[in-house]
Design brief:
- By secondary structure, the protein is mostly beta strands.
- It has a single domain, classed as Jelly Rolls (Sandwich).
- The protein has no helices and 8 strands.
- It has a 4-stranded antiparallel β-sheet, with no helix packed on it. Strands 2-7-4-5 form a 4-stranded antiparallel β-sheet, with no helix packed on it.
- 26% of the residues are buried.
Length: 112
């Protein structure tokens, strides 16, 4: 079993930034369960964070309007591709400060 992780701290987003990458992890071929934890301070009422794979597949999404800890989760089968990314991106309707964002991927199977 393999665990891969990535972390980013102190990311500030404004409405003009649109949907912006906060943190991503690079995954080898295999099947993974994913969890992401974000500690946020929101100054708006319609901020959104999402978890996507590098092929654009939406794995989880959450809209929120206060200061909180947000958890996103999903499953990803990278197939036989040598490299796949899983990314958290967020957008702010006013201002959003991501104090800490962490992605953890637990490999639950391997292809080939």
């Amino acid at each position: 079993m393999r665990v891969l992780a990535a972390e980013q701290r102190n990311v500030a987003l404004a409405a003009k930034d649109g949907l912006a990458k906060v943190v991503e992890v690079i995954l080898p071929a295999g099947r993974f369960t994913l969890d992401r934890t974000l500690t946020l301070v929101s100054a708006g009422s319609g901020d959104v964070c999402e978890l996507r794979s590098s092929d654009g597949t939406l794995l989880d999404e959450l809209q929120f309007s206060d200061t909180r800890q947000v958890v996103l989760s999903g499953e990803l089968d990278t197939g036989t591709r040598a490299v796949t990314r899983a990314r958290i991106s967020c957008s702010a309707d006013d201002k959003l400060d991501v104090e800490r964002a962490r992605i953890r991927a637990l490999q639950v199977g391997q292809i080939g």
